[in-house]
Amino acid sequence: MEGGEGGEGRKAVPMYIRTVVALLVAALLASPTARAQVPGVPVPAPSKEADQAGGAFRYSDLLAAIQRGSVREALLNPGRAEVTVRLAGGREATLGYPADQNLADRLARSGATVEVASSDDSSGPGFFGFAVLGMIALTLVMFAVSLRSRRSQAHGAGGAGGPLRADTKVSEATRPTVTFRDVAGCDEAVEEVAEFVEFLKDPERFGRVGARMPAGVLLHGPPGTGKTLLAKALAAEAGVDFFAASGAEFVERYVGVGASRIRELFNRGRNAPEGAVVFIDELDAVGRRRSDGGQGGNDEYEHTLNQLLIEMDGFTGNERLVCVGATNRLDVLDPALLRPGRFSRQVAIELPNAEGRLAILQVHARGRPLAREIDLAEIAEGTAGSSGADLREMLNEGAIMAARDGRPEVSRADLAEGHLRALAGPARRSSPLTPEEREVVARHEAGHALVAEYCETQDATQRVTITPRGRAGGLALIARRDRALQSARHVHEQLMVLLGGRAAEAVIYGDVSSGAADDLQRANALARHAVMSLGFSERAGQLTATADGQNMPLSDTTRQVVDEEVERMIAEAYRDALTLTRKHRAGLWELSSALLEKEDLGREQIAALLGTGPPRPVPTLGLGPAPAPAASVVPLRRRRERRRTQRAPAAAAAAGRAAFAHARFLLSKRERPRPVDR
Predict the structure, then answer these.
(1) Number of other CB atoms surrounding residue 316 within 10 Å
(2) Angle at 67 between CA 64 and CA 70, to 5 degrees
C-alpha cells in the first residue's frame, strides 16, 4: 500500500522512453565487454575452460602445449579475440588471447589444424550492429518528440495536463487602484474610454435599446503617454477584473502556443463573474500587417493573429468584456484588426500640451514636499515635448536628490538636476577631459546656443552646461514649443542648430573634432526624413519612401537623388551655420568663456551674454541658476540698436518703391476700352 500511495504522485514514464532505454540496454548487453562487466551475466570463456582434472587452462598452458606439439585442432575467433583448441588427449578449452599476430603461425608450425572464424560468425553485434542500433534509437527519439509536440498542439498546448501549461504566461486577474483622477494630460481620451464604464456596469441597459458597445478600444500614441494607466483606470472605475498581457508573449517558436495563450486569456476574461478588461500591450508585436504569406511565412505568427481575430469576433452583446489594445505603431497594424466589430474605437493619446503637463505634474507632486519657490506652471511651460513618464521621472529624480542630501523638501535645484538626469543621465564629476578638450566642448555647446538664439523659427536655449553626463561631454537644452506642423525653413534652421557646434569649432580653431558625431547622425536622419517623408526637396519631388507602414522599393536612380539631396541640405545648413557664427563671433567667444568659468548657464545669462535683450516670449523651464549679466553686454546691445536705427530709413524707402511698382502692375492689367467701328 505504501508503495502504491507513493507512486500516485509520480508521472508515468512514457512508452517511447522505455522503448529507447530497452534497446540501449540490449545493445550494451550484447557486447562481450559489457557482459564481462555486468554482474550476474556469465562469460562464455571461463565456463568452458575446465580440464579433466578440474584445473583452469591458461594462456601459458596453451603456449606450452604448442611447444610440445600436443595441439591437434585450433579455431581462432578474431572478432572476440578467443581461441578454441583440442589437445592430444581429447581435451577442449576456450580462452582469450592477446593481439598476437604469430599465434596462428605457431599453431600451424606445431602441426595443428588451424581454422579462422569470420566476423559474421560472432554472436555479438560488433561496431556495425551498434551503429544500426544507435540510428534506430535516434530515429525513435526524434519521432517521439515530434509526436509529443503534435499532440500538445492538438490539445492547445495549454489545456488540462498539457506540457506547456506552465509557459502560458497569462497573468492572473488583478484589481487596479488607479482611477480617472490619476490620469492627467489626456482629457479627451478619458472621455472616450469613460463610456465603457457604464457598459461594464450595466450592459443590459444598452441591450434594451439595441445598442452594442465596441468589442475593443485601441489606444495609440507615443511611449509614456499613459495608455496602460488609462486601461487600468477603466477596470478600476468599472469594478471589474483586469487581465494584462504583452503582444510579445503570444509569439513563440512552436506553432499553436501563441493561439492557445490568446484563447486562455479571453476565456479567463469571459469567465470573470463581474466582467473583465483584457489589456494587450504592444499590440503591433502580434497584430502586424500581413503580407504575402505573413512575416516570412511564420506559421506561428499567422495562427496567433487569426486566433485574436476570431476571439474579437466571438463577443456577444451581453458579455461584460472589453478588450483594450495599446500600440505605438498604428500604421503597421493589420486592417482586419481595425475594421468595425473589433478595434473599431481608436483613441489617440498624444504628448500633452502645457495644461496637460501642469495636470500631470500636479498628480505626481502629491506626497512630495516641494519648496515654495517651485512654480509647476512655469515648469510645464518649459517642458514641451515631454511625456507623462518624462515628467514623473523628473520629479522622482529630484526627490531622490533631496533624500540623498538629507533635506526635507525638494528644491528648485533638485528639479533642475532631475530634469537633466532624466534627459542625459547623471553627471560625471570625474571627467577624463583634459583642459584643452574641456575648452573645445565649451566652444561647441556655445555654438549650439548661439545658432538657436539667432534662428527665428527655433526656440531659445534655456540651459547650456559642460558638465559631462552619460556619453556626452556637454549639453545645450533647447526649449520646444507645442507644434503640429513643420515648415521647410524650420527644418533647415533645425539642421543649422544641430551643426552649430561643429561650425563654432571651425570658426574658432580652424579645425573640427569628433564631438559632433551624434549631431551629424541626428542631422542626417532629419534631412533624410525631410526628403523621403515630408517632400521638402524640389528635385526628389513629392515621393515618399513609406506607405501603409511599409518601406517602398526605390530605384537606384531615385536612391542616388535622395542621397544627393540629403547631402545638399546638410551642406547648406552647415554653410549658413558657419556664416552665422562668423558674424557673431564676439558673442560666441563671450558665451563660451562664461561657460568655461561657470560650467552652467541659464536662460537669462545666455540672453544677457549674447545681447539679445529680454528673453523671447517662448516658454522657459525656469530651473537654471540665477541671472548674472556680464559687463560686456551693454556695448554689444547698443551697437545692434544703432544698426537697426540706421537700417530703418532704407527699409522704409524700399517698401515704398515696392508698393509703387505693385500699383503700376495692377493698373496695367486693367482692360482698356476697345475702339468702336463706325
Answers:
(1) 11
(2) 85
Q: Report which of residues 84 and 655 the model is more confident about.
A: 84
The per-residue b/e assignment along 64-80, b for 16 or more CB within 10 angstroms, e otherwise, is: ebbeeebbbebbbbebb
Q: Confirm whether 445 is a catalytic residue.
A: yes
664, containing H or E segment? helix 633-668
Q: Determine the distance from the C-alpha atom of residue 282 to the mean position of all C-alpha atoms in its chain, rounded to a whole number.
A: 11
The DSSP string of 85-109 is: EEETTS-EEEEE--S-TTHHHHHHH
Band of pLDDT at residue 574, cut at 50, 70 and 90? very high
547: nearest Cα among 349, 225, 331, 298: 331
Percentage with pLDDT > 70 across the chain: 72
pLDDT, one tens digit per residue, over 188-246 is 899 888 888 888 888 778 778 877 777 889 999 999 899 999 999 999 998 899 998 88
Cα 542 to Cα 561: distance, rounded to the nearest angstrom: 13
Write the DSSP assignment of 613-644 as a string of letters.
-SPPSS-----SPPP---TTHHHHHHHHHHHH
Instruction: Return the C-alpha cell found at 222.
Output: 507615443
**Quick one: pLDDT at residue 18?**
64
Q: What is the pLDDT of residue 634?
A: 37
DSSP-assigned states of every residue in 235-268? HHHHT-EEEEEEGGGG--SSTTHHHHHHHHHHHH
Residue with cell 579645425: 511
Contact 283, 331 (CB under 8 A): no
> Residue 549 phi/psi, 5° resolution?
80, 5
Choosing from 252, 300, 393, 445, the catalytic residue is 445
Q: What gap in Å lies between CA 37 and CA 39, rounded to an integer? A: 6
Q: How far is CA 236 from CA 13, 275, 555, in A?
A: 47, 12, 53
Q: Are 135 and 21 in contact (CB under 8 A)?
A: no
Among the residues of 215-343, which ranges form H helices?
A: 227-238, 257-271, 299-313, 335-338
pLDDT of 17-56, one tens digit each?
666 666 666 655 555 444 444 444 444 444 343 444 445 7
**Across 307-327, average pLDDT:** 80
* Range of weakest confidence among 443-447, 513-517, 545-549: 545-549
